[in-house]
Amino acid sequence: MKKFVSLIFIYMLFAINTHAEELNPANIIIRNFSPEIYHAHQQNWSITQDHRGIMYIGNTDGLLEFDGAEWRLITLPNHSGVYSFAKDDVGRIYVGGDGEMGFLSPDTSGTLRYISLMRQIPEDYRMLADRIFKIHSTPQGIFFSSERAIFLFKQDTVEVFNTSDHFFTTMYINDTFYALDGDNGLMYYRDGILWPMHGSELIRAYIVLPIEAGQALVVTPYAGILRLNPNNVDSVNYIEPTYNCFSPWPTKIDDFFKSNKILCGTILSNNWIVLGTEEQGIIIIDSNGEKVGQINKETGLNTNTIYEVYQDGQGNIWASLDNGIAVINLNQTTPYFQPQLSDSNYASKFVAYVRRVDDTKTETSFFGGAYFTNTLGPILLRQAQKMKPEFTHKSNAFRFKYAANWYSESDSLLYQYYLEGLDEAWSVWTPRTEKEFTNLYWGKYTFHVRAQNALGEISNAASYTFSIVPPWFETWWYYTLQVVLLVSFLITSSFLNRAGKGAKFSNFLTNTVVVVIFKYINMAIAPLIGSATAGVALFKIIMSIFMGYIMNPAQALFAKYAFKLTAKQAEKEAAPVIETEPEKEIVEQSYIDEAMSRGRAKR
Fold first, then answer.
1. pLDDT band at 581 (very low <50, low <70, confident <90, very high)
2. Which residues pair with 434 in a beta bridge?
3. Maximum distance among all alpha carbons in the chain?
4. How far apart are CA 539 and CA 80, in angstroms?
5. In whole angstroms, how far apart are CA 43 and each of 62, 66, 134, 416, 520?
6. What percent of the chain has pLDDT over 70?
């Protein structure tokens, strides 16, 4: 206890007299989402963003997914709330509930579903999996932390670490996992064991914020904010780590921290520290501990109780509230808030998404927004070849839903689209977030969509490729069969004419060939004529009359040339044989013999 009191005294001596420029409330843009908008419980607990830019909020009813246009609720098997998230290197989202832990994975249609890991935990330890308040994705595995136990999943094994008291919080700093235990103080993971850091038993904190050089700020309920420097510990032998890895980190608003309960915190890309409180909304301080600003009900929040704060890839601050969700744009012109653009990180870009594709004839969805090569593998940023579907000619009516990640002002977004294979140019800009296409002809199509924000910036375009397979009567082999059949009709008709038999049937065959050929010609040139004449009906009528007048001459022409063709063939078959001299003598002798026999018969 003496060490603890001494620490508070030392902490009070570390005061710095720097001045920070406060935020201008007039520049702050706050957008509130009420339960009536997202259609779930009023309380929200945790927030994260995947590497595509889609937002996820832990709610008392489950997991909320938000793409900028639509909200979707994903429920857990036991219908518990969601209280923590983590994202691994390939973009998989891990989820912690109350008596539940697992991850999100796409089903065969690309719709994200929750996959539970509870069955992998030995049955005797499952009761220790109460509310999962922290998750850490590390090279050592995935740590799920509850008050009574820590579960480490690595490959196909699960390690369980329990406590005789309870865990206050956990953290991952400088490639090391730490847990703050009620009995042993700060503990670190090494070689399958949680080792205590002696002298830290009196530390009590629920919030740890990693900062530069592998250090962290520890927000305590009594001693203000401490700086944790694990580098002061013997990193080779870990011999008797002591309390000297903690040092005070004074601020200009220490009295505020002593009189108000801090529930959450995060560090922004410009090193400002954002802290959520139980009754005072959000407090922002700079890296020198000076107050920068405060955001609460007076400045536009729905409530002053903040359970989580999170900065997305574009610099917006998200807050999960006791009543709703808020996204806050500090609207700063400093370079701190300019995101680093990267092809591998869509979250920091202004991008559009194809979020859902439905068959409007059956009202079923065959794409739910997530590309993949393996349903248990990572979510892809672009459409894989195996996810480019083929449909029968009967499935030719689709609805595309789309969105973009301009979250602070998504209501002001406009969209353009075009269907490659049907359209020749982009559509006009529209606020609509869905588009339907009906009666599509067979072929390959690619749907393109892009967004424009209030600043006039145009997003990266998203696309979705699919094909409609031709029916059997539109296949190459069917057209080949038609050609063979028509030619056989003409030949049969000609042979009948030459033999002087079946004149009516012969004419029927020839007429059939002519009508079919003229019908195909009309189908080929009608769209061209319609386009050239702007669809005026008179030109279509004239075209039909012209086709009717030339049909009979064409029939006669077909019959004439077909008859000549078969006549030449018949002449070849009936051509006289040129006889040699011996053969001629034999033939003449046969005539003489035949004449003499006839003469005898007459006598």
1. low
2. 401
3. 163
4. 68
5. 11, 16, 18, 36, 65
6. 77
